[in-house]
Amino acid sequence: MIHRWSIARRLFVANLLIVVSFIAIGGTAAYVDARDRTYEEAGRRMQGVAASIAANPLVLQAAATSNPSALLQPYAKDVTAAAGVDFITIMAPDRTRWTHPRDEELGRPYIGSIDAALQGRTFTEVTAGTLGPSVRTIVPVKDGAGAVKALVAVGVTVRSVDVAFEGRLPVLLALGMALLAGGSLASWLLGRYLRRVTLGWGPEQLAQLFAYYESVLHSVREGLILIDARKRVVMYNDQAAELLGLRETGSNDPTRPPSLAELPLDSELRSLFDSGRTTKDEMVLTGSRVLVVNQGPAKGPESPGTRGKIPVYGTVATLRDRTEIEALGNELQTMQTLSDALRAQTHEHANRLHTMVSLLELGRTGEALDYATQDLALSQQLTDDMVNSINEPVLAALVMGKVAEAHERGVQLELSTLGSGAAPGVAVQDLVTILGNLLDNAIDAAADAPPPRRVELTLEADEEGLDLAVNDSGKPIDPADSEKILRHGFSTKPAGSGGRGIGLALVRQAVQRLGGTLAINGRRGAKFEVFLPAAVSAEKEHRQ
């Protein structure tokens, strides 16, 4: 049954038991202390009354007579009534009573200890007498020579003392009840708060839920990162650590989670996390990866205590790696480019065949032969130029396809090369990504500009690497946009043109991954200059 209790109920019951135990122990100690103090106060009061009576000369005078009771008994009763004591007994040194509240006890021996008083000392004791247990003080009556001539015993019964003490009990009981009520109220308020923040769950349920969450975080294939309202990374799973490179970073103190500024995040990704804005399937380029990010507010559960206001604790973001998909997309784009080139060439070839067939039908055989010869020579020359300039067949096919595409759109694509036209050790997929996107942007810009529409491609390769430059006759790039244009999502194309803001971002990512440089010159048209260093082979590095 206890295992089903919530943390709030357990805390309330535990705190209530502690308060009750504290009140019981403290109340008992206060009770005993108050009782002892009451007895001490009674003893001091009896001592004062007894000392006053012993100092009265009447007592010595009466002690010297043959019948001391005749003088002292009325006096003792008057003082008893005036002082509020239960009895005053004046006796001879041999214990013979001269005064007593009961007249029948006169002349009988005093019951109690008088040894200390006979030695001239005052003492107080609690003992049983004819009136029952009492608190009494005995004071010696001395003459001028210091001899003890009589003894004065003044006392109050224990019942009278207890009655006076019981008058203080309501205060003690009220104090205990106030402590109990205050402790119960504090426990209830704290329990109400815990019930709200823990949703009424017990520690076993929370531990089980935490174990479930831990297993989910470590098993999911998506990266998950939680950022609180103070821009601190409070949690991320294994996949997020792998995607963002966070395994050896951050604070080792779980009570001080690292801030976004302390983590080695790309500026674009850090800005997205820092903004806290809601995103859905937004692509972000970071390092050598292309990530798809979904981000939204981390809202707490709605409970009666929130009064309709759902608390927001920060943001939660999920990350998916799309690098391989983008690589496949680039390859598909390359195939699409080659397909478009073949389509353009087929269309152009069909026009030429129609021209030659028409010349033959008109009976102009010689002119048809001359036209076919010239067309074959031009086609062969273009093919020979590409093969001789670019050793890489895939890259040569890409450029040929772009030449045909540019020609179809009314743009003249010119190629000039020096060397092999390919950087040693650089993957052809990266070259296709860089060159294909640069040529696409250049052809688009030139096609939208007034004549003459031209795109110049320059390739220069040597042992150090590959220099390539793409220059178009389109609109110059605003210097203020030279940095923005390389960011993912930024585009100078009109809205709705499709494929906005991804091509140049992929170019920048590929160049950075290969350790190259990218420069933009926007004085006449747009000119993109890229340098890709050649990869050093293991054999060459060993010789060095």
Automatic annotation (TrEMBL):
It is a multi-pass membrane protein. One of its GO terms (molecular function) is kinase activity. Keywords: ATP-binding, Cell membrane, Kinase, Membrane, Nucleotide-binding, Phosphoprotein, Transferase, Transmembrane, Transmembrane helix, Two-component regulatory system. It is found in: Cell membrane. Residues 316-536 form the Histidine kinase domain. Its main location: membrane. Its EC number is 2.7.13.3. It catalyses: ATP + protein L-histidine = ADP + protein N-phospho-L-histidine. Gene3D superfamilies: Histidine kinase-like ATPase, C-terminal domain, PAS domain. Pfam families: HATPase_c, PAS_8, sCache_3_2. SMART domains: HATPase_c (SM00387). The keyword Iron-sulfur does not apply. Residues 209-246 form the PAS domain. The chain crosses the membrane at residues 12-32, 169-190. It comes from the Bacteria. This is histidine kinase. It comes from Arthrobacter liuii.
